[in-house]
Amino acid sequence: MTSKPFLPALFALPFLAACSFNMATPPARSAFFGSPRVLPAREAAVTGEATGVDKLFGPSLAGGSLTYERGLGNQREIVVTPTAGVIQNESDYLGLSLDIKQGFPDTRNVAFTYGTGYLWNKNAQAVSGEAGVLLGYENRFFVPTLSLMLFLSEPFLAKRICSEPNEESETQCAKPTRTFGARVGITTEIKLPWRLSILPSAAFVPVQSQTHSFKMFQMSGALRWEY
To answer: Dihedral, CA atoms, 108, 111, 117, 119, nearest 10 degrees?
Structure first.
């Protein structure tokens, strides 16, 4: 499930918008999916991806993931993605997601994805689910893909997190909450020799928690090897 994607919201990060203290819970998977093409049975691929998520004009999150894909046959593959990163240069996070990508026998340009995952941070843990569709155009040299993903994240063992007081606002405290989100992304898989490819990606990520909503942006780059 997703390009990812992408942690569109952060456990312990107080987003300051109109002097409010915003809290949300991200999905476990930050990585983008590649093209809709499904690997044949017993073939595999490994993708390393670096990503950044941003609400205003500075990076809010920097992270990376290593995705393993394996074809299962019947136009289906399994996708395992461990993720790690840092929030605002202060708080580490770890994630693990398990997804299925399902294609169709008559086309390589459409696939569905769905899966679940777990995310850990010192301030909370969470389980999440994500599902979406990949729409691409397969050709010899590059594959542009539009991804439409939805996610739901549910925190547990969450701690109260407080903002730092400043001239405009007093200390505010809140816990991470159940969060819905979407990701509308574009990925271009550029094919290289030796079954390598590079995948630049970008996405718009609207997020809705139980208390507020906001919008984020994500950019990432990845290197993929099929074998």
So the answer is: 80
